[in-house]
Amino acid sequence: MPMRRRSLLTTAAVLAAPLALPWVRRAEAASTIKIGVLSDMSGPYAEASGPGDFLAAQIAAEDFMKLHPEITVQVVQGDMLLKPDVGASIARGWYDQEGVDAIFDIPQSAVAIAVGQVAKEKDKAVIFTAAGIPDLTGKYCTPNQVQWTYDLWSNANAITRGLVEGGGDSWFFITPDYISGHTMTRDTGNIVKQLGGTVAGEAAYPFPGTTDFSAYIVQAQASKAKVLCLANAGDDTSNCIKQAHEFGLPQSGVKIAALVYQDYIARSVGLEEAAGIVGAMPFYWDMNNDTRAFSARFTPRYHNARPNYYHAGSYSAVWHYLKAVAAMGPDKAKASGKAAIEQMKALPVADPLYGSGYVRADGKFIHANRVWETKTPAESKGEWDQFKLLATIPQDKAFQSMETLGCAFVKT
Questions:
Q1: Distance between CA atoms of 128 and 148, rounded to whole angstroms?
Q2: 2 pLDDT above the threshold of 90
């Protein structure tokens, strides 16, 4: 029976395919960038970062590929369970076996330090969009990493000056027993003292797993401090705020300062209890037309929740990294994470979410920071209208200097 023309063509294509595939694979691999979002996908920081940061990275990749269809961007996610050994293990697997070129996020500083060392060892890139310890661009700096979204000193500096100058000159700290918590408490306490205030006390609690903060709230109440400073984040911050209200601290005039504050925290607590809380956030969804436009795209894909500054930082950092990839070429970016980071430093940042800025020689993204106060229910005009702007800290005053942080590979 004679073979039909259609069958003949199909057979020829199948036979020819194996000869072409090795070349195709090499071409595709050279033009494919793989990004890993390593975060807390199931624990106390999951709502603050996790799935929302993964979505923001996906949106950045989608936007980039529209402008650069010749470059394919893949985004994968992993849960580091807030454990340095787990985070380092995932990073090694991603870099060695999975072809990941750059890792983002990491909302826990001990994990960030561990992953940073893996990235340096493998000459890959890591961009911290949720880890806040300032020493990521100081004691623990490497030429293979960038700290993007914020750092804890910047938040402490922004919040503390206004509150102390407004009469809040005695502070009590509730601190999670890990490196970021102790860093926040130390840096904020130092600023309070420099401004003439006093530290009335501190209570450190086991992390993770603590949900009952009543004993620590009672200590704060007994100290007679004018400011209760929450040097924690995520669900722990929410629980502390609720329990502080149960004990009547805000009602008695104690001001609450949250060093890692987020939109969803105010929403989960409710404006009745969150009203008056002060926090620092470089991004707020309702800040300007650009932030509102991003929010309109993000919200329907994220259980109708507005993006917070971690989410915006994930988009911003992935976008700038991909701009660097396009400028240097995917093959060079894949060959050296250090070279990709150097390209990020060479390009000015013009960002619709974080504004203008630059990546400093030590890897710190320098940008403005902002201080917000939570609105009362009467002040709010809608479900997600939660904050009023108190102050903007310009980029030249928002972060510690390189000289202060002392990054070893940077000559100042």
A1: 6
A2: no
What would the mean pLDDT of 50-60 be, rounded to a whole number? 98
Q: How far is residue 386's CA from residue 272's CA, in Å, rounded to a whole number?
A: 11
Asked whether residue 78 carries a pLDDT value surpassing 70, the answer given is yes
Peptide bond into 208 cis (omega under 30): yes
- CATH 1.10.150.120 is held by the domain 28-150+288-367: no
Q: Output b/e per residue, 225-254; b: 16+ Cβ within 10 A.
A: bbbbbbbbbbbbbbbbbebbbebebbeeeb
Q: What residue ranges of the chain are covered by domains with CATH 3.40.50.2300? A: 28-150+288-367, 154-281+369-397
**Mean pLDDT along residues 237-260:** 96
Q: Which tokens belong to 185?
A: 């408490």
Model pLDDT, residue 19: 41
The pLDDT value given to residue 341: 98
Q: State the average pLDDT over residues 177-191.
A: 93
Spatial separation of the C-alpha atoms in residues 366 and 400, rounded to whole Å: 10
Q: Which of 310, 251, 247, 246 is nearest to 275 (CA)?
A: 251
The domain defined by 154-281+369-397 folds into: Rossmann fold (3.40.50)
Q: What is the pLDDT of residues 145-165, one digit of tens each?
A: 999 999 999 999 999 988 998
Rounded to an integer, the average pLDDT of 238-252 is 96
